[in-house]
């Protein structure tokens, strides 16, 4: 994997529409509990696991509300989907325990869960039809394009505010930009900037469905929309440049060859010969095959989403926590998350699945650690494994870390 050390970009100016709802922490703003409650109402999701089959059968009747073509749907503006949500950690201490880690800061895995829920609600806000109480769309997370952080510590006793809106729309997909800010001395200051890609599907989550087009209203919005289009083209280009489809470039081959030469052991039994099988670990280094960590999760109904699949935010939290544990053990000190990118949701995870997580340190530089987490479901009946997600996390350790060195061809291109 190429090294990803992301820099926080300047946040776009805040669009001027808020929700009218209630929380003691900030009048007029909903909290994350209300976000999830609204999602259940929009979809008509059951609150009891045993009733989910009936709830999904009721959703089938919503097929008639789907648009036959995108042109049948009214265009929307960016501010139409703009939401602000409060996480009242400062003003409501009773909710802190869920978000607290052992270092007395906020668990980033919980923030990932909140971002995922908010992103879905933003998209439902963009596609809402005034005369429809329930949405015929099943909106799910397809990709976390990037999350950049500009603050090492997220404090557990200060209110947090999330803002976001749809920033780009295709035929059946939507890009969502979200920002997280935390209260400091009476002002909300930026903590992170996130870009998610959501896809719309039919009521049974089987086929793509059209979404409302997006119309920029200002030069700034036109630039945001143009960037969304560029992001889409980059994703397409990235998918076609896979090593399974395209040979490494000349520059990549040279890098791999240099790594290989640095691991050859020239102290051979026969003079003047060097065996490719005889390898040595460079000083202050760790073989990539020794920088791994694995985990297992049983996917219980408690972690289901509004479509009775395992919640994508839960998967992100578990992958992040495995990645954090690997960065901690590899670097020998507390790691801080710097960026998250290229989280691909390839296959939904069913309730009852056995979820296998595999973390791998794939690049290091000074005190930065790049970690890839691969998740797959295991079917105990068929003995089959299927990839569900791939995650990329960049951590910053408190001290310089050993260089990770690949031993195999595959490891060199991770």
UniProtKB/TrEMBL annotation:
Keywords: Hydrolase, Mitochondrion, Repeat, Serine esterase, Transit peptide. Its main location: mitochondrion. One of its GO terms (cellular component) is mitochondrion. Residues 81-204, 289-401 form the HotDog ACOT-type domain. The keyword Transit peptide applies. The keyword Transport does not apply. GO terms for biological process: acyl-CoA metabolic process. PROSITE patterns: HOTDOG_ACOT. Belongs to the acyl coenzyme A hydrolase family. This is ACOT9 thioesterase. The lineage of its organism: Eukaryota, Metazoa, Chordata, Craniata, Vertebrata.
